[in-house]
Each structure stands twice: as structure tokens, then as C-alpha cells.
Write a structure and sequence with these properties.
CATH class: Alpha Beta
CATH topology: Rossmann fold
Order of helices and strands: EHHEHEHHEEEHEEHHHEEHHEH
Shape: globular
CATH superfamily: LarA, N-terminal domain
Structural class: alpha/beta
Number of strands: 11
Number of helices: 12
Helix content: 25-40%
Oligomer: single chain
Number of domains: 1
CATH architecture: 3-Layer(aba) Sandwich
Length: 276
């Protein structure tokens, strides 16, 4: 198997680090054949990017600028969570204002009526999931945040895909094993491109109550397992200790070890994150 390429760029908050990270990987090929792209952000709260809790609008704006060069329709998407209204989060974080300047719509997946059921063959805990049909007909970009997580150790690109489920009360999935649910979702809705916002990350009691950490990093990759594994290593966490990353690799969803890191090297940007 060919090694998976993951780009790491260090730089001050702005468009250029995102552009450079994308240029390190073959991101255009990952989106080939699609006329629509969904950028899935992490809006588990209405807190702004500088808290380390939510995806930075600057990262998404840079993605939009690059996608505007392709013949695709663009949407920025999120769904309501147990304690968060996605529409309020779009407004509070500045994402809605930014998207309006580019003519890009922000979609709350919970309110889309046209849904489809996807069967999960050999799922860890789920037999199927129901999602808006637009999700199954689009290229998916996981615009995740570099954060620790009290339940899953990290919340990066694959964990971000959990938010594609349109259910508001998602806590029920935690009760049956959130790490296994993440693997099941990614087995049928694997992101075509993962971009992790590490301009301001979060350590400690993530994904909301942790402490912001200025890392000035952007990660990009076409392999979500490899991208998450690389980011985890930069956080000082062995990806083999992260249940959903390890299980996803075993299922063949991506590489956990066979990775070509380009741009910055892990040891030069590594910082051991506090867990709790």
C-alpha cells in the first residue's frame, strides 16, 4: 500500500498556511467527479475560534477561495447538538457573515427534510444511519479543530464527521460507544479531504471546557486516518491508544503508520497536550 501523504504547515493565522497545506497534497483529485462540496465545520458550541473550541472562519474562507477555482457548488454544514443550535453557532462565530460575502450557504443538516438511510455492513454498533441526501451526493471536507476530548482523547477529522448525523440529541450515541459510532460513520461517510485547524487548538478538558493553545498549525490530507494520526502525534498522543483511529485503520479506512509527512516534521512542531 502506498504511504498516505499528510501536510503540516506552521504559520500565523491567515489564508497562506491553509493554501500551502493544500498544495502539499493532491486535494483537487480528491474532489474530482463532484459538482458539490460540503465543508463540515466543528460547531459543538457558539464559542469563537480563539477559545480553541470551534473551527476558525479564516480556515474555511481559505478553503472557499480554493474551491471557487473549481466547478463546484459549496456549502458549509453543521447540525444541531444536544446543547447547541447550529444556526446560532454560524452567526456567533462569524461563519455566516463570512460565507455571505462569497455567496456560500450555511446549512443546518437537522432541518433538511430529504433524508436517506445508509446501511452499515459489519458495523461496530450501528446497522444504519439516516442523513440528508445531500451528504451522500457531495464531496465531504472535514474542517476540524485540533482538540483533546474527554471521551475519545482527541476530536479531529473523523470525530468531526459525527456531526453529519441530523439528530439533535446525539448523547444517545455516547451511551452505545462513541468511538465505535465514529468508526461506523466514517466507514460509509469517509471525508474526501481533511483539514485540521490548529491555529488555536485546545488542551485539557475538551472539547469545550479546555484551555486554548496557540499552535499556528494547519494539517491537510486525503486519508482521514493518517491525518488524525499525524495530528495526534503532534499533540504527544500515540494514535494506537485512540480507539477510533486504531479501529478505523484495522478496518482499512486509512493508514495509521504508513504515512509520508510533508512540510513541517512532527518533532519540530510537537507539543505534549494536557489531557484533563
Amino acid at each position: 500500500m502506498e504511504p498516505s501523504k499528510v501536510g503540516i504547515i506552521e504559520g500565523e493565522r491567515g489564508f497562506e498556511p491553509v493554501f500551502r497545506a493544500l498544495d502539499l497534497i493532491d486535494y483537487k483529485s480528491a474532489l474530482t467527479g463532484f459538482s458539490r462540496v460540503l465543508i463540515k465545520v466543528n460547531f459543538i458550541t457558539t464559542m469563537t475560534w480563539d477559545t480553541g473550541a470551534t473551527t476558525d472562519p479564516v480556515v474555511v474562507e481559505a478553503l472557499i477561495q480554493r474551491l471557487k477555482q473549481l466547478p463546484v457548488e459549496i456549502f458549509v454544514v453543521e447540525s444541531d447538538a444536544t446543547m447547541t443550535d447550529a444556526d446560532k453557532a454560524f452567526e456567533a462565530t462569524g461563519m455566516a457573515e463570512m460565507c455571505s460575502r462569497y455567496g456560500v450557504k450555511c446549512l443546518n443538516l437537522r432541518h433538511i427534510e430529504d433524508k436517506v438511510k445508509i446501511k452499515i455492513v459489519g458495523g461496530e454498533v450501528l446497522k444504519d444511519i439516516t442523513v440528508p441526501q445531500i451528504v451522500t451526493q457531495s464531496a465531504l471536507i472535514s474542517a476540524a479543530k485540533m482538540k483533546t476530548h474527554s471521551s475519545t482523547k482527541v476530536t479531529l477529522g473523523m470525530k468531526n464527521m459525527f456531526g453529519l448525523l441530523p439528530d439533535k440529541f446525539k448523547f444517545k450515541y455516547h451511551a452505545i460507544g462513541i468511538s465505535k459510532v465514529i468508526v461506523d460513520i466514517n466507514s460509509v461517510l469517509k471525508p474526501h479531504l481533511t483539514v485540521i485547524d490548529g491555529f488555536t487548538a485546545m488542551e485539557g478538558k475538551g472539547p469545550i471546557d479546555g484551555v486554548p493553545v496557540k499552535m499556528n498549525l494547519i494539517f491537510a490530507g486525503n486519508d482521514p486516518v493518517a491525518t488524525d494520526a499525524t495530528c495526534s502525534r503532534v499533540m504527544g498522543i500515540d494514535p494506537h491508544e485512540i480507539s477510533h483511529i486504531k479501529s478505523a485503520a484495522k478496518k482499512g479506512l486509512g493508514n495509521i503508520d504508513n504515512i509520508e509527512v510533508v512540510g513541517e516534521q512532527i518533532e519540530t512542531v510537537k507539543r505534549v497536550f494536557k489531557r484533563k
